[in-house]
Amino acid sequence: MHLKVKETKEEIYAAQRAARHVSPHLHHALEIVSVVEGSLELGAGQELYHMEKGDIGLVFSDIIHHYQVFSEGVNQVAYILVPPSFTGVFAETVQNSAPECPVVEAARLEPDASHAISAILQMEEHEPVVVQAYVQIILARCMGKLKLADKSSVGSDDLVYRAVSYISRNFREQFSLEGMARDLGVSKYVLSRIFSRTFHCNFNQYLNEARLGYASGRLEYTNDTVLDICLDSGFESQRTFNRVFKERYKVTPSEYRKNQKRNLERAAGK
Question: pLDDT by residue (tens digit) across 165-221?
Fold first, then answer.
């Protein structure tokens, strides 16, 4: 769900969903991820961190990260994206530092951290102070268990970060590899090698993955039309959107929405 906070323009994204592969990306928000059932692999920097039920992962602002799922069976994860303004006294740390290991194991956590995550997932609309209180409980319980380093040590100024940041900011717009290379001040051939060597895909595949990730969330947690979601995600036509979506998820966008709604109802015991 998207939780709109009263009297502000900011939102928190909070959802419990099946764990799945998510390509490398970054954003300015703090991302909190907690394994509800099964396991998850959280990739940050050059490392992959294994997460089990009850573990909490914290991805600070503007850090490239991705997710992998290796285990079979049920793997459910809670995701929360928090605007920097909601991190309170931790804002400077979240924006200027990076955890050497972003995962806090369940055995090291106080129960109120997990309870705060559950409370956020169940909220619909609250005053900002209530949302901030839950977020800061999570941070207060986790920060002391993380070893922090300066964010510059994870390569936040290199071309990989600039490329990922560029697509994260602009994927809903129309642009080409050539235009992106020009804006970043590099050769399109250099940029093309970044995608093939670092992300093991080409520019169009990476861009489509970013668009599909955004679109799938909108299909799950809004009632917007498929056409509106298609155009708002950066696709030029619904025909292209349907084709690319089905290649990725093996079902059409409409079928995906129905399946996800059915899964949510089943999880809620309806």
Answer: 899 889 999 999 999 999 999 999 999 999 998 888 999 999 999 999 889 988 987
19 with 51: CB under 8 angstroms?
A: no
- What are the tens digits of pLDDT across the range 7-53? 344 567 888 888 988 888 888 899 999 999 999 999 987 789 999 99
d(CA 135, CA 80): 10
Question: In angstroms, rounded to a whole number, what is the distance separating the alpha carbons of residues 92 and 109?
Answer: 23
**CATH 2.60.120.810: does it fit domain 2-150?**
yes
**Sheet strands side by side (includes 65-68):** 22-25, 65-68, 39-44, 47-52
Fold of the CATH domain 159-264: Arc Repressor Mutant, subunit A (1.10.10)
Here the tokens at position 227 are 């056409």
Separation of alpha carbons 58 and 102, rounded Å: 5
Query: How many angstroms separate the CA atoms of 81 and 51, rounded?
Result: 18
5 DSSP 8-state letter = P
Write down the pTM of the prediction. 0.80
Query: Which tokens in the block code for residue 175?
Result: 């642009």
pLDDT-derived band at 72, boundaries 50, 70, 90: confident
- Which residue ranges does the chain devote to CATH 1.10.10.60? 159-264
Domain with CATH 2.60.120.810 in the chain: 2-150
> CA–CA distance from 143 to each of 22, 111, 181, 260 (Å)?
25, 15, 38, 34
Cα 22 to Cα 10: distance, rounded to the nearest angstrom: 24
Spatial distance between the Cα atoms of 243 and 115, rounded to a whole number of angstroms: 41
DSSP 89-100: GGHHHHHHEEES
